Amino acid sequence: MTNNAKLAIAYHEAGHAVICWRFGVRVPKLTIVPAANSTGFCHHEKIIRGRYPEADTSNRTRLRMEKCAAIALAGAIAQQLYKPRSFRNYHGSADYGVAAEMALRTNETERAAKAWLRWLEVTTQDQRREFWAIVDRVAQKLIEVKTLDAEQIRCIIFNVREPV
Asked: Domain containing 11: what range?
């Protein structure tokens, strides 16, 4: 794998992690070590509780679905901001699947779900630009060490030294 490909993966995973931080979702582990079905992974706490969250029409559940979809979209968005030509549709296929599922669960029609997803992409892109310096720091450290834990991520986000 080329260095450019590794960097693209690092930015993708950093995008997920930083939007998790933005929403207060804990990330115990972030990695670019390849596994069976992925080239990297952002392990974050479970956001959606229950088997059929769409049955709960509360604002709280709707906002959790929105967070889940935004986190899923953030990886591809960060990778595309890093280097647009590095992104292929299959890079974010599982992430887009999660976002699409949340869109269909949250909205009553397919048309509304598509509009909701587009709105979420735009707002997530705007946040990604706002937090780009943090995404960059996380991605660069991820390239260096391959795996980050929650404390390391926190130190990078707040730009403080890690405890020795």
From this structure: 3-157
